[in-house]
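FORM 7B: Structural annotation worksheet

SECTION A. Query
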Amino acid sequence: MDTYRSNVSASSSDRKAASGAEPTSIAWRLTQCLGFLVAAWLLLPAATPVHLEGFTAQIQSLAMRLAEQGNIHSHDLSRPRITDFIFLTRAGVVDLLAAANLVFGYTGDLGLRILTMCSLALMLVATAAAAKRLAGVSFGIALLACVAVPGLVELGFYFNDNVVSAAFFSLALWAATWKRSYTADAVAAAAFAAALLCRVDAVLGAPLLLLFYLRDARPFKVLAGRLLWMAAVCLAVLALAAWANGASLLDGIRIARDFSISHLQDKGLFPGRDPILHFFAPVGAVLIVLGAALGWRRVPDGWSRWVWLAAFYGYPLLLLLYVLRSSLELRYFMPLLAVPIAVHAGQGLQAVVAWARGPDAGLRRRAWVIAVFALAVLALPPAKSMMRDGPRFFVGRLWVTPAWLEWQDSVHLTMNKAAQTVADLVREPSAVLVTTSWNDEFYLRLRLFEAGYHEVGVEKACRPLSHYRSGDRDLWHVRMDPQYALPPFKRQLATALTFFGAAQCPSVRSDAPVWISTIGPLRPESTANGIEQADFDDPPYTVLLQTPGARSLRPHPHMQYAVYAARPYTPPRWHTLESRATAYVREQARVSGDDPERMLDRYERSFGVAR
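SECTION B. Predicted structure
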């Protein structure tokens, strides 16, 4: 692709104008400062990343156990299959976070914040550096082009495994552009292996990495030797990780296939439409289309032409079609395209800068039209918003920063409330905790582990409860959420079985205080089992950009975010719920000709518990 780099710019004067090599006016300096100030404003939430969901809390609690004990065997004794799935498909992230915990302490979120910030920084630096080497885009313009694509930079506003995996994959692609050497090839291979360990679906990036190595029309023996060396390094890294973790990447791929949840919901014909639109947003899309159009005319001839077209046009389009058909989240798969995005968007932005500073009046007008469009789209009131992995604005990105900051405050409030619930439970020698959803379940488990609790096994009569102990204090956990729809029952029956198990357990004191928690509005299976939204004092949602405070700059009524709530239940009220669930389970068993005890056995086995 070095051939392409020599042809990427229309003229040497364009390159000088875009890079600032020509004498610059005060107006141009002020424009540069404004651009970087806007970029800094849009990146501000990256300084305070928070948890995204219960899944990330589970990753952090896994890392705590790994750092403390050297293994994860006792992490979740009543849901070992869930633990295996999360760990085996993201072992690299758990390992890195465990290392951070060893340095920064087991409690609190400092380790995950540093990991998230470092991952975002590595992804942006590697992506911009690769764009510079591939297409002659200046490093600063490539960084600004990345910021223009919200789906890339907003990955760093919350803890997730995607940004860590994407950072390593971007490093692998960058290393593939270095001067040909065994060291560069080893770095690329090791970085790709790390991306796979952090997230199994990084395997979808393998064709793009291979295309980067096919760019040179070298003799086949030379190319084959380089690829064999890279395969050896990659396999060595994966083998070392398998030895350290006690499981291989193949185990992760196998369990990921078993946990496919595509059958759980009707996604519609094109579920990835909104995620793709919000990932790119208007400014990013315009720059990418402009850069791709300009780059198409400058693609080199010969073998390199076909490789370039496949790597920067064909493969991204195929991945976009896959996301359009299958993905509901912005962070899935798309970060693998960070380098192609930076190349196209960087070329587009560099062309606009060159036009604005060039002698051609027509091109200057074209550049200012694009600039005015970009400023208008950024500054207009928010429009086409959605709450998915945080607040997203298709139009009005300048307002998204206060929305992200308020969303992060809401997550902090949720985690603090969960910690307060744990503090209330710690005062009791024996208590019962009932969680109604996936998120509050794993947030509370994380805070319980930080408070010194550890999980112990339960007798068969107490299945499917979880039992935690800290010193002489006992806590029984009723986990209502049928995670990943693994139990072979309808949701209402699956949740009722957890109440039925609690009623049968002889070790749970009848006068033990009971706390019930939720995040957001109660699900139908919770209300069907007798829990009511009116039981909780706090509303299920907070509305972003509506709450008073210094960070609220503009109201927007559609930014609702589910928040945590918990309250104590009196023992009589709790026993009423147990009795109601027990009657329902027995009735369902009678109708189906089943037995409640066998139903509990199947419930346990669905989560990997073997007795």
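SECTION C. Observations
The beta strands are 383-387, 391-395, 430-435, 454-456, 466-470, 473-479, 514-519, 541-543, 560-562, 564-569. The CA atoms of residues 102 and 205 lie 31 Å apart.

SECTION D. Sign-off
Analyst initials: ____
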